[in-house]
Specification:
Shape: globular
CATH topology of the largest domain: TIM Barrel
CATH class of the largest domain: Alpha Beta
CATH architecture of the largest domain: Alpha-Beta Barrel
Radius of gyration: 22 Å
Strand content: 5-15%
Mean pLDDT: 92
Low-confidence stretches: none
CATH superfamily of the largest domain: Luciferase-like domain
Structural class: alpha/beta
Distance between the termini: 30 Å
Number of domains: 2
Amino acid sequence: MSRRQLHLNVNILHSGFSPAAWRMEGSDPRASFDINHYIKVAKIAEQGTFDAVFLADQAAISDRIDFRPLTSLEPTIVLALIAANTDRIGLIGTVSTTYNEPYNIARRFATLDHASGGRAGWNIVTSADLAQSRNFGLEKPVAHQSRYERAGEFTAVVKALWDSFEDEAFVGDVVTGRFVDTDRVHPIAHTGRHFSVHGPHNIPRPPQGHPVLVQAGGSDDGRDLAAAHAEAVFSASQSFDEALSYARDLRRRAVRYGRTDDAILVLAGLATIIGSTEAEARRRQEELQDLIPLEYSLARLAGVLQVDQKRLDLEKPLPDDIALPADGGHTFFRATLSLAQRKGLTVRGLIRALNGGTGHRTIVGTPAAIADDIETWFSAGAADGFNLMPDVLPHGLEVFIDEVVPILRRRGLFRREYTGRTLREHLGLSRPHNPYASAAE
């Protein structure tokens, strides 16, 4: 049996994980709108033999753009340009099932997979915030359960469309004049609660069969969606015990859906602030913190917890009666509340511990300390890898690759070179078998 391999992605979160990243010396304030910034970060990640780059998405202005950069460029277009400027690195983009239709998303990711030679991945999300709802003609977000019911059906339709063109359907025989074997192209004739899609797809089956399916929900409905469809999951656990519990729960659910307990890779979110010494890393953390207005951080925390900001006293712990939101945002709510309770933090202390973020775990330390932490989580099965969010891009990623990756390689945890060309090969995932081909056998 081959040795289990650590997986590393980088989340190109505009100028970096810290809201103040764009203000740091050497940063480009226009990075979030500059396609060359994304290409540059992707090239650095490819030099470090990372599995993939990842792009989040938000079809609305949902943060304080008077202070910090926003998530704005459409991911699949950015990833197509990254594909044209790289050779091996995977390309994972977020697209919501709430405000799209299955056919056009199936086409978009099939096209990206063909264009990149099999490097595409789709991060399946549902959208719960009011700002996005209003941009798509709704006065309030779609209810939580309805969003996930739609997402499950949406994903099943997309997979069926990818399979509707069998691998051998394209003939292209110039002698006989036969272009496509139409016996191998199938309508999907789907009629469900949310969608009616006849099909077939109008693009040959993607090189990977299916672009890799990724999911990031932490609620029960989100975990069930992942258990049914996902091949990798982005998690947001704050502690080792939480991460281990989450991974075990996800694997149990996968088995209930008729899959194996190792069918899903768990990639934990990890923000990094690196220094050559512990003191240097802490100084960098403080420098970033000092550039973040306190009132911004307080408002952001209130938004994650979905409580009135006036209820948050900086010098006191969080109120005891904060309840899980009814309509979404469960992942970061749970991670943030867990951090506050586990460490007994005041609101001010929680803001500092989050480093201006929304609930992802942050490590502040030396390269060796960060490598030790990664190895601990990986070796114990709390994570199969990490979705990295360097404090400042591209500098924080360059430091990670120059200083942390060599340690991981010396310990035999991470690849020294790519051995495959597709994202599935990087992640050790098999190519999905086409059910139509099975029926013909």
